[in-house]
C-alpha cells in the first residue's frame, strides 16, 4: 500500500466490461512527507475520492480482490486519508 494524491480523472466511453461503472482517477505517488515521488498512474476509485484528495492505494491482486476477481484492475484507491503522522 502507498499514499497518493488525486490529480485528475479519466473518461473512457469504450472499455473492458469489468471496468463499466468504475470511476478511474489519475493519482501521483507521494512519500510520507506528502511530497511527489515517482510517476503518476491510473487507479480505480472504490471510496468516492475527489481531485486533490490524499488517498491510500493498493496494487496487484489486492486491488483485483477489492474490485472483483475477474476485473482488469492493477491499482485501486481504498481509503481517503485525513492525516499522516510520522515520528522521525
Automatic annotation (TrEMBL):
An annotated GO cellular component: carboxysome
InterPro entries: EutN_CcmL, EutN_CcmL_sf
Subcellular location field: Carboxysome
Classification via PROSITE patterns: BMV
Domain of life: Bacteria
UniProt keyword annotation of Acyltransferase present: no
Keyword Zinc: no
Coiled-coil spans in chain: none
A Pfam family the protein falls into: EutN_CcmL
Keywords (A to Z) from UniProt: Bacterial microcompartment, Carboxysome
Entry protein name: Ethanolamine utilization protein EutN
Species whose genome carries this gene: Oceanobacillus halophilus
Organism ancestry: Bacteria, Bacillati, Bacillota, Bacilli, Bacillales
